[in-house]
Amino acid sequence: MSTEDRPPAPRSLAEALRARGDAALGALLRSRPDLITPVPTDLTQLATRAGTRASVVRALERLDRFALQTAEALAVAADPATYGELLGLMAGDDADPAVVAALPHAVHLLREQALVWGDDDRLRLVRTARELLAPSPQHPSPTGLGPTVQEATAGMSPGRIQEIVAAAGLASTHDSVSAVTALTGLFTDRARMAALLADAPADSVEVLERLVWGPPYGQVTADPAPRLRWLLDRGLLLPTAPGTVVLPREVALHLRRGLAHRAPEPVPPVVETAAVHRPQVVDSAAAGQAYTALATVEELLKDWDEGGPAVLRAGGLSVRDLKRTAVALDVPEPAAAFWVELAYAAGLIASDGEADERYAATPAYDAWLEQPPAERWSRLVTAWLAATRTAGLVGGRDAKDRTLSALGPGLDRSAAPEVRHRVLALLAGLPEGAAPAAGPVLARLRWERPLRGDRREDDLRGRLAEWALSEAEQLGVTGRGALSAQGRALLGAPAAPAPGPEAEPSGPGDKLPVHHHHRPAPLAPLSPAEQAVASAAAARLLAPLLPEPLDHVLLQADLTAVAPGPLRRPLADMLGVLADVESKGGATVYRFTPGSVRRALDAGQAASDLHAFLAAHSRTPVPQPLAYLIDDVARRHGHLRVGAASAYVRCDDDAVLSEILADKRAAGLGLRRLAPTVLAAQTDPAGLLEGLRAMGFAPAAESAEGDVLITRALAHRTPPRTAPEPVPDGPPVPDDTLLAAALRAIRAGDLASTTPRKPGTGPAANGELPRTGAAETLATMQAAVLTGEALWIGYVNAEGAASQRVIAPIRVEGGFVTAYDHTADEVRTYPLHRITGVAELADDAG
User: Fold this and answer.
1) Using CA atoms, how far apart are residues 824 and 793, in angstroms rounded to an integer?
2) What angle do CA 506, 508, 512 make, to 5 degrees?
3) Which whole number is the average pLDDT over 748-770?
4) Separation CA 694–CA 692 (nearest Å)
5) InterPro entries this protein is in (predicted)?
6) Are 187 and 179 in contact (CB under 8 A)?
7) How far apart, in whole angstroms, are the C-alpha atoms of residue 758 and residue 764?
8) Cβ(588)–Cβ(563) under 8 Å?
9) What pLDDT was estimated at residue 5?
10) Arithmetic mean of pLDDT, 427-454
11) Residues in a beta bridge with 591
């Protein structure tokens, strides 16, 4: 293309955006969705919003390390800079080939994000980004560079500048501007600078070497040492404040051989493979973890069936209740916090909302229990992927130094879903069965989002990634550290890349340190509908790997029962009432005790029912000690009756009541004899039942009519509750429909605001609406109907929103104008009283 045919260079970001096609504008709005919240009226407003501090900071935080380094280099380059100048700052005198190859993509990305605009011969960083990234004493540049010679000498006396010029071997000039220009020319001339530094004392060069990579500032006394005096005399160090000197940017760049960064990082860190396992081993291990996850959540909810822990006044679980839950689940406290938060995120537990507020299972838990195991797992992992609540923070402190509690406020971190997805996506890019080391994964994430981690004291993204790896293993998304087939399906990822020869396991241990050099294309997060399809596919892959539930146990003579695998639900529920879990693992051991048998009797079972149940579900004969235990507890069950007086206890055997009165452990119950067979108590019936059971008796509660009250499990449920909504990380990415509508609106508004007007007919393209009187508006409209000309109008709709439009009037009558609206590309009717004014368009308006 010749110079004459080339379109004029844009003079502003708005003009650069105006030259973009819809595809390029759509890419900008997808990557920076805050720019269309709300939809801007035209491209000028879009450019203004893209330059606001909040939006620029957000865009910078989402750059990878090399793109950010490129923006930082532009901030210390001339404004505007050429592509060649930028390449020199990034690749240095040696022209690093990796940087040369990667820089065009980085510049394209910055342009796409509207952080850089202009052609390659006039690259400009948006003003706000330059202010954020350019060096200053208060905010040092990440490059470690200081101010330019011109900036550092801005307050220096002309005489002192001339002294520096003379000491540097330059001819004196008539003014400070030309002197500073001459000094800058010296410092940017590699040959002359090399000659100047060749005469420098060795200790002076040592001073420069200490400052060259930053920080560029140093302290000097009122009487500097000779090595410093030599540098100050020649301007190689310049004073910025009393006692402070700085290394000028041009000098530093010469010493750095042109590099703005000590270590440019054009290529992302390789995610190294630490071990390789057979895919079948990975899937089986993940399935085992998935089964354990389901069992743990069920055990947690069963423990809270009749009302869980109390809700703290500020919300959440107390430290004591979390410890008790950890003991009940036989897991560490951080793991207990994770399972509690996972059940909450899946909508299986919530607070009951009563006056004495407690946590309990929701009605959704009962529906969840009825689903097949693979579908129950799918619901848990889908909730985990999208949850912003972060269990790893439990036990830490918030900004006000308050302890963060499980299920309490302050646990939402909007970056958590993105980090989880990205961690799993990196695993999906490895060969099947390959498990990465945690270090390279964290290094890769820090390269992809450097600012967000570097600016936090505790590197939140790094901790989120570590938690994601651990939680994925606990849930069975990964097995032995490698992504399972069901985990891959959960992401909607394609088939894994085939492992190379170096990735083959070398023996039965299946562990071989290799380095994986494949760089996968990033996997985009799925929409809710796509995620539902992916989760269903993951459940189908997992289902055949889960063990089939059993309908039997093995009873043993030591009052235990062994379940060699998962049990079918009716059997598991009944056995959970009749016996206590003694140990878990591949096989679960249940122990029968007087208390557990009494629990089954309290739930309405008769001794004959228990004998029949055990005989039906045991592959071994019912041991005699177990049969005796059931009969003995049943014989004594209900012998004592407790009712409401405040509370009373009655028994046909007055000797038993006398035994209770004589027992010192009954002192706290406030018992006194009302009749030979009746004792009254000062405590309530529940407390009396508890106290007598602690003393070794087996009392039964009775109603006012004297009937035994049967207590059944699964009694307490919250009202219907919805799962907590994730806290979004900024505005959502617009879908295709919203994006198309936003582009149409922006283009339409831009057409109205930029169409040329005739001189003297109103403000031009400055955002103001045209203003004319009612008579002039009507006359101009009527004239345009006759001539067929288009007009520029200001219009205020019924909601009070103002806009500019280009219309071609067709008919004016009854206080309305019917016109073809060029901005909306359709015929519309407008009330004349809502038109603020009208202006004629220039004759050459397109």
Assistant:
1) 13
2) 40
3) 63
4) 5
5) WYL_dom, XPB/Ssl2_N
6) no
7) 9
8) yes
9) 56
10) 86
11) 560, 580
Q: Parallel, antiparallel, or unpaired: how do β-strands 826-831 and 816-821 relate?
A: antiparallel
State the burial class of residue 799 (Cβ atoms within 10 Å of its Cβ: 0-12, 13-18, 19+): exposed
Beta-bridge mates of residue 397: 403
User: CA–CA separation, 608 vs 631, rounded Å?
Assistant: 9
For residues 830, 833, 837, 840, the Cα torsion angle rounded to the nearest 10 degrees is 40
**What is the rounded CA–CA span in Å between residue 580 and residue 571?**
14
How far apart (Å, rounded) are the C-alpha atoms in residues 390 and 727?
11
Cβ-based burial of 138 (10 A; exposed 0-12, middle 13-18, buried ≥19): exposed
Instruction: List, in sequence order, every residue forming a beta bridge with 231; answer none if it has no partner.
Output: none
Joined tokens for residue 179? 């002197």
Cβ-based neighbour number of residue 587 at 10 Å: 12
Give the residues across from 349 on adjacent strands: 361
Angle at 378 between CA 377 and CA 380, to 5 degrees: 65
Burial of 328 (0-12, 13-18, 19+ CB in 10 A): middle
What's the 3-state SS for 146-165? CCCHHHHCCCCCHHHHHHHH
Better-predicted residue by pLDDT, 599 or 707: 599
Q: What single DSSP character describes residue 392?
A: G
Question: What whole-number distance in Å separates Cα of residue 688 and Cα of residue 367?
Answer: 36
Residue 679 gets the label, from left (phi > 0), alpha (psi -120 to 50) or beta, of beta
Q: How many other C-beta atoms lie within 10 A of the C-beta of residue 824?
A: 14
Q: What is the mean pLDDT of residues 606-620?
A: 87
Phi, psi (5° rounding) for residue 244? -125, 135
Beta strands in 427-553 (DSSP E): 434-436, 478-479, 482-483
Helix 416-428 × helix 373-386 angle, to 10°: 120
Backbone phi, then psi, for 368, in 5-degree steps?
-65, -40
The three-class DSSP label of residue 367 is: helix
Residue with tokens 């002076």: 204
Amino acid, single-letter form, for residue 258: G
The dihedral built from the CA positions of residue 278, 284, 286 and 288, taken in this order, carries a sign that is negative
Mean pLDDT of 745-754: 75
Helices (H) and strands (E) in the chain, counts: 34, 25
What is the identity of the amino acid at 537? A
8 Å CB contact between 701 and 711: yes
The whole-number pLDDT of residue 145 equals 93
CB-CB contact of 815 with 831 (8 Å): yes
d(CA 484, CA 471) in angstroms, rounded, equals 14
Q: Are the C-beta atoms of 347 and 364 separated by less than 8 Å? A: yes
- Single-letter residue type at 442: L
Helix, coil or strand: residue 478:
strand
Tally Cβ neighbours within 10 Å of residue 242: 7
More confident residue, 600 or 387: 387
DSSP states of 654-677 as a string? HHHHHHHHH-GGGGGGT-EEEETT
Q: How far apart are CA 844 and CA 839, in angstroms?
A: 15
The CA-CA-CA angle for residues 535, 539, 544, to 5°, reads 165
Joined together, the tokens standing for residue 211 give: 């400052």
- Choose among 26, 17, 36: nearest CA to 732: 36
Residue 508 is predicted with a pLDDT of 37
Distance CA 231, CA 215 (A): 17
| Secondary element (H or E) of residue 574 | helix 569-578
Q: What is the DSSP string of 111-139?
A: HHTTSEES-TTSBEE-HHHHHHHS--SSS
Six-digit token string for 178: 């030309």
CB neighbourhood size of 97 (10 A): 10
In whole angstroms, what is the distance from residue 381 CA to residue 841 CA? 60
Helices 528-542 and 373-386, packing angle to 10 deg: 140
Q: Which residues of 23-39 are buried (b: 16+ CB within 10 A; e: fewer)?
A: eebbebbbebbebbeeb
Rounded-to-integer distance, Cα 811 and Cα 659, Å: 106
Measured CA distances, 427 to 271, 405, 423 (Å): 9, 31, 7
